[in-house]
Amino acid sequence: MTLDLSAMTRKELLQLQSDVEEALRTAELRERQEALKAAEEAAAKYGFSLDEIAGTSRQGVKKNKAAPNTATPATMTKPGPAAAANRIGCMLR
């Protein structure tokens, strides 16, 4: 199936875009359902339900929280001699 997009009107192109978006949504839903079915079958092969496996993995994994990004006096940098000289030069002008 080949479409000559350059020969299509704006209205036809918008309709095609809408049709493609709907087809993509339908295909994604179908693939998700297939993946879920495959996952359930794989879990059943080992004697588990997918809920049992998914529930365990969610509870067993702890998320690491990042340390807060705060500046402390010990980690702050002090201005060097050039900054001090610049301040003195500004005051003398």
Mean pLDDT: 81
**Order of helices and strands, N to C?**
HHH
Low-confidence stretches: none
What value does the Rg take, in angstroms?
31 Å
The oligomerization state is single chain
* Total helical segments: 3
User: Count the strands?
Assistant: 0
Helix content range: 55-70%
Secondary-structure-derived class: mainly alpha
Beta strand %: under 5%
Termini separation: 78 Å
Shape designation: flat
Main sheet summary: none
Describe the structure.
- This protein is mostly helical and about 90 residues long.
- Helices cover about 65% and strands about 0% of the residues.
- The protein contains 3 helices and no strands.
- The longest helix is centred in the N-terminal third of the chain and has 36 residues.
- The termini are far apart.
- The relative contact order is 0.04.
- The mean pLDDT is about 80.
Can you lay out the helices and strands and say which pair or pack?
Elements: H1 10-45, H2 50-60, H3 81-92
Descriptive key words:
93 residues, mainly alpha, flat
Q: How would you briefly describe this protein structure?
A:
The chain is mostly helical and 93 residues long.
